[in-house]
Specification:
The chain has a five-stranded parallel beta sheet with strand order 5-6-4-7-9, with helices on both faces. A three-stranded antiparallel beta sheet has the order 1-2-3, with no helix packed on it. The chain has a two-stranded antiparallel ribbon with strand order 8-10. It has 264 residues and is of the alpha/beta class. The protein is globular and about 50 Å long. The chain has one domain.
Length: 264
């Protein structure tokens, strides 16, 4: 009997393709973190006794969660007409992924999802943000401190499942040049100005115990949220378990999850 391996719900269904990039300098201040888990899977999916299984060449059959399974488990959307049509989802991530577009196309083909009305890569720290060539180019294996490789996984995962849950919505990937609070705040501020009325998805966080009284970046983020809300934006945090990155042994609040201007 094949060993069943339970992995973070959305991550193992993502189909990830990555290639190396060149190096970019980091700014000062604290750095947000992500902690995705991913395993390359084939398209063969089985549902014995209601348990979703995907086939892996190295691990055999493992528990995974496809878009249809997630929708059924969470009863989302509540009606068939709620597919995100007319909405724009802005996904804020550091570093981005060089294969985000091709990953999304492969994901859609695998699960039978039509492409989004539009997919825009927005380089939030660039003077010409709508030019994808101005997004950061980093070597995902050169700087473990910023964990660029995990960010590429997180980026493709976020794009794919935002689209899977709202296939009628426009998708914008807002790429910050680094994972520093300054870079992410600046990139998000640029996207707030460019996409009023959008829904902002933030899959990053940092335990507040690590902030060390860095109130300037917290105030900058709070100002962004207040400005966005005034423009009709909605801001969504990551799951609390993700935001407590590497802090499971310490009872601590996390940001941006604990930011009062963010929707629960």
């Amino acid at each position: 009997m094949n060993k069943l391996l339970t992995i973070t719900a959305l991550a193992i269904a993502a189909l990830i393709l990555t290639t190396p990039l060149s190096t970019v300098a980091a700014t000062s201040g604290y750095n947000y973190s992500v902690s995705p888990f991913a395993i390359r899977l084939g398209p063969d999916t089985r549902l014995p006794d209601g348990i979703p299984l995907c086939r892996s060449a190295s691990l055999g059959s493992i528990v995974c969660y496809t878009p249809s399974f997630i929708k059924k488990a969470y009863e989302f959307p509540s009606t068939a007409t709620l597919d995100g049509t007319g909405q724009t989802i802005v996904i804020v991530d550091a570093f981005g992924s060089p294969t985000a577009s091709s990953d999304l196309a492969l994901f859609d083909a695998t699960f039978g999802i039509p492409p989004p009305p539009s997919f825009t890569i927005f380089c939030g720290n660039s003077r010409t943000p709508f030019d994808p060539a101005t997004c950061p180019h980093v070597n995902i294996n050169a700087n473990s401190f910023h964990d660029e490789f995990s960010w590429t996984l997180e980026t493709s995962l976020d794009v794919q499942y935002a689209h899977a849950m709202a296939p009628g919505a426009n998708i914008v990937l807002d790429v910050a040049s680094t994972s520093s609070g300054n870079a992410i705040n600046d990139a998000e501020a640029a996207a707030i100005a460019a996409f009023p009325g959008a829904i902002f998805s933030q899959s990053f966080g940092i335990p507040e115990i690590f902030l060390k009284a860095n109130n300037a970046q917290i105030k900058q983020a709070q100002a962004n949220y207040a400005k966005g809300i005034a423009a009709g934006d909605t801001f969504l945090p990551p799951p609390a378990t993700l935001a407590r990155v590497r802090a499971d042994l310490l009872p601590t609040l996390s940001t941006p999850v604990q930011t009062q201007l963010i929707s629960p």
